[in-house]
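thought: fold this chain, then report.
action: predict
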Amino acid sequence: MITSTQNPKLKLVKALLAQGKTRHREKRIVLEGRRLILDVMQQGIQPDFILHRPDIEIGIETAPLIPVEPHLFDEISDTQTPQGMLGVFPMPDLPIPEEATLLVALDGLRDPGNLGTIIRTTAAAGVDGLVLLPGTVDAFNPKSIRAGMGAHYRIPIQTMTWDRFSQGYSQDWHIWQAATDGRVAYHQADWRPKTLLMMGSEAHGLSEKASQYAANSVYIPMAHRVESLNSSVATAILVFEIQRQRGIY
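observation:
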């Protein structure tokens, strides 16, 4: 049982939860809660180890289990109501498939909860990959991980510089941006060609840099003088319409 704050595994978990640079250096992330851990393990991903309070039911037999004194566990937990179990897992690194025909690129999205919801939504819609452009929050932030509910392992997520994005996606793709002053209503656009959808934050929209790549723009009609939608909600509406037009749903 871990009884000291100086335990190396405890210190690693703290660093992974608090520091993006540690996550990317170690290529490890922390998943918290039995449901999320089991979901990812059922996808065939095994943890390095699982820390748990000794007073909870584990229900897992195929991973290294390490009990932690309750007060120490509650101190390192990233949730307001600790669930008593967390695991250190390999960071997902799925490549965007060469045959991809639908990508979503996020520009300057700073809310990790929104990002996690978008990851979950785009995975559910069958989007081929997510591109995180400069200024977007780390996809593996603990809040993003919780909101994603295991979807980080189901869809390719690639962080890119503008140079890499320009080299890979500025040609051969129909690039659209979502904007409140877009030119075409989203349900009237033709989404059947190879499509890259660029989404910004609700507060700021796309940056000037990102807008330079988008030759087309769409808007979502809204009633009662509502001016905008949360980025994750808008993304959900758009990607499911794209897949509807393509006969996926």
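thought: worth noting. The domain at 8-90 is CATH 3.30.1330.30 (60s Ribosomal Protein L30; Chain: A;).
final: tokens above.
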